[in-house]
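Narrative of accomplishments. A recurring question from our advisory board has been how the design workflow behaves on a single, concrete structure rather than in aggregate. To address it, we present the structure tokens for one chain from the evaluation set, followed by the sequence designed for it. No filtering or post-editing was applied between the two.
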């Protein structure tokens, strides 16, 4: 889609880690790209990492976006959580408090001169493809935004490409549990969990043993009268806090408000907390016009889990799950730029569709459920390397994989302690070089 005559205009939706990373790379390539326009619905940079004490609505009456809790520390060491070209402060411990990540993202934003390109409190309402003969490639995008606080007018601007960086930890996924409405205690989703104190003396059932479920279990075990972790992978091999029980998944809630587990056991807790993850939502993309489908946590059709084959200037950054997010964004975004600047030539639409279909069939034949197809896990490293090879940019150094994978093992073996580990992957001299690169 490279235009010979003029620079490309790119809209970026969201100023979380992915949106900032997109802007950082677009700004570095001003020979090809105009400075991007970032639309951010809130008034702050950092997305998920902007902790809000309140739940529901914020002080401006907007829905609270972040799912952070007060005492959260990262579950990935800062040495590999960082963008590869911008390390965290070397004096910080490996597993940092969420306030440090927000600080880090603000530093990244200012260091790369991104802030002036962000339009805060702008909600992207619609992103529509427009086919016109007058522009090279024929396809442009009308991006319509409104003032998030409801004041002011809608505006529509035209772009050559759109990078969707709207995150996917905002819209709680509520599983279809028979009789959920019968539950008489406090029913909540982990999106609204902030602090442990209000749960003192209460009995709690947590549904889901993902990263949030496990973290919240540890916090609540300090104060609650009883904590039960209900999940599908019984029993977990890692040591759990004293007094925490494990139970099978919740099959239904009976008319007396009792939780009935898969094996017939029952419980009537004070609190039932769903730690069941989040939905993908792209409310600004019309189903009829763009035809993106979200089924069972799988988003299709997306070539390389990234771009729509019929609209190869629409990029969805960061929809893969079970990845090391910031370095993954760093790779996806540079690949997207190589598609836009023409240094990587995409296969034809038909070839991309055939490849996607073949990949999907291989996964399904291997027994991967549709809802797990976007979980890359250890395959993320080959994926990132492929992005780098096709996009002709520097791959991640090998220690990224070794440290990330080692951390996964330590987390599984030593859940209660792994965040106290300190990694020393760089010598002081190497750190100085890294810090210099970021300067
Ligand atoms: C509880 C929790 C703990 C986590 N812990 C870790 C960790 O330890 N390490 C790690 O690496 N990752 C962690 N993550 C994952 C984290 O989400 C990613 O690291 C990363 O921050 C995601 O960035 P993002 O830019 O994709 O999305 P987000 O941070 O969600 O940012 C999206 C932005 O888009 C904006 N937006 C959305 N829709 C619109 C619209 N229509 N118009 C305008 N703006 C819009 C939002 O306001 C937001 O600012 C955690 C996530 C959660 C929820």
């Amino acid at each position: 889609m490279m235009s010979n005559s003029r620079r490309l205009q790119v809209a970026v939706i969201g100023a979380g880690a992915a949106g900032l990373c997109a802007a950082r790379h677009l700004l570095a390539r001003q020979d090809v790209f105009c400075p991007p326009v970032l639309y951010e619905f809130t008034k702050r940079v950092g997305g998920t990492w902007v902790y809000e004490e309140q739940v529901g609505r914020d002080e401006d009456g907007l829905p609270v976006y972040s799912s952070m809790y007060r005492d959260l520390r990262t579950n990935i060491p800062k040495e590999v959580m960082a963008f590869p070209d911008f390390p965290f402060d070397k004096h910080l411990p490996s597993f940092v408090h969420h306030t440090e990540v927000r600080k880090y993202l603000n530093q990244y934003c200012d260091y790369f001169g991104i802030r002036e390109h962000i339009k805060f409190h702008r909600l992207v309402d619609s992103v529509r493809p427009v086919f016109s003969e007058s522009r090279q490639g024929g396809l442009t995008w009308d991006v319509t935004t409104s003032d998030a606080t409801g004041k002011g007018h809608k505006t529509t601007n035209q772009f050559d490409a759109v990078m969707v960086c709207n995150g996917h930890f905002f819209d709680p996924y509520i599983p279809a549990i028979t009789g959920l409405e019968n539950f008489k205690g406090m029913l909540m989703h982990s999106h609204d969990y902030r602090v442990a104190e209000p749960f003192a003396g209460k009995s709690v059932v947590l549904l889901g043993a993902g990263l949030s479920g496990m973290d919240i279990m540890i916090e609540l075990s300090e104060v609650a009268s009883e904590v039960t972790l209900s999940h599908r992978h019984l029993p977990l091999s890692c040591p759990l806090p004293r007094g925490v029980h494990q139970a099978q998944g919740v099959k239904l809630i009976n008319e007396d408000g009792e939780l009935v587990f898969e094996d017939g056991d029952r419980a009537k807790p004070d609190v039932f907390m769903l730690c069941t993850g989040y939905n993908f939502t792209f409310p600004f993309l019309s189903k009829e016009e763009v035809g993106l489908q979200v089924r069972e946590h799988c988003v299709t059709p997306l070539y390389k889990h990234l771009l729509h084959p019929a609209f190869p200037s629409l990029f969805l950054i960061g929809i893969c799950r079970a990845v090391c997010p910031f370095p993954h964004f760093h790779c996806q975004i540079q690949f997207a730029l190589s598609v836009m600047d023409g240094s990587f030539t995409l296969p034809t639409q038909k070839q991309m569709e055939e490849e996607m279909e073949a990949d999907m069939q291989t996964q399904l034949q291997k027994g991967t459920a549709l809802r797990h197809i976007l979980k890359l896990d250890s395959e993320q490293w080959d994926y990132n390397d492929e992005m780098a090879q096709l996009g002709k940019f520097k791959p991640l150094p090998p220690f990224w994989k070794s440290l990330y994978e080692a951390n996964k093992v330590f987390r599984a073996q030593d859940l209660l302690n792994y965040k106290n580990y300190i990694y020393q992957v760089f010598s002081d001299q190497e750190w100085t070089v890294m810090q210099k690169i970021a300067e």
